[in-house]
Write a structure and sequence with these properties.
Elements: H1 8-14, H2 21-35, E1 40-41, H3 49-53, E2 61-65, H4 90-103, H5 115-120, E3 122-126, E4 131-132, H6 144-158, E5 163-167, H7 169-174, E6 184-188, H8 205-215
Parallel strand pairs: 2-3, 2-5, 5-6
Antiparallel strand pairs: 1-4
């Protein structure tokens, strides 16, 4: 995290965070883990990929995840997303199923890379932006949550008419600071196979999101399009 490359609009709102004690502590933790030879995902230059892929002025939709994927080759800085050529994990498979059902389109997504959603204005933000290989939740409580809380607070304050998709109790608790008088907040169980049948399937968040965007004069998201 020594050379922070952050999109200018986000940096204008978040620059002071990098001088806070919690961020100094986080930086020291990551450096120490690297010095121990531990493998960390995603790569350091992808920690802020979600913010760099979707400038603050372009954000229309926010999907809140929890931790990056911790298996080799999966995480690349966008929540729920994997690179092309990597098999979509179960939660993403279920997201695709719900999109297909909700929008009445074929479930023939070519891959699991969601970068085109990001380019359309979907901020794919994890709460924690790094993880140790094969050690789920290993970087929780180290400071990332404070930083991503600030991201959500900035969005809630500075923007209007955004849609926040909060799946699972963790995301819903984290999203409690969102001003629901200015934004649409949609809640459902997490798309994980452990909880998807408790109400994620059938939540129809994707059509509801697009209806709201259209009613607020914004271009809807082409959820079926994964290719730039």
């Amino acid at each position: 995290m020594a050379d922070i490359q952050l999109e200018a609009g986000w940096l204008a709102h978040l620059q002071s965070e990098f001088h806070q004690p919690y961020m100094q502590s986080l930086r020291a933790f990551l450096r120490a883990e690297k010095d121990k030879g531990k493998i960390i995902y995603p790569k350091g230059n992808e920690f802020f990929a979600a913010l760099n892929s979707t400038p603050i002025e372009a954000v229309k939709v926010v999907i809140l995840g929890q931790d990056p994927y911790h298996s080799p080759g999966q995480a690349h800085g966008l929540c729920f997303s994997v690179r092309e050529g990597v098999a979509p994990p179960p939660s993403l498979v279920n997201i695709f199923k719900e999109i297909s059902s909700d929008l009445n389109i074929p479930n023939d997504f070519p891959h699991g890379c969601l970068s085109n959603w990001a380019q359309q204005g979907v901020l794919l933000l994890n709460s924690v932006l790094s993880v140790e290989q094969n050690q789920a939740a290993s970087h929780q409580g180290k400071g990332w949550e404070t930083f991503t809380d600030r991201v959500i607070e900035v969005l809630s304050r500075e923007r209007e008419g955004c849609v926040f998709l909060l799946w699972g109790s963790y995301a819903q608790k984290k999203g409690s600071v969102i001003d629901s008088t200015k934004h649409l907040v949609l809640k459902a169980p997490h798309p994980s196979p452990l909880s998807s049948y408790r109400g994620f399937f059938g939540c129809k968040h994707f059509s509801a999101c697009n209806e709201y965007l259209q009613n607020h004069g914004k271009t809807p998201i082409d959820w079926a399009s994964l290719n730039s």
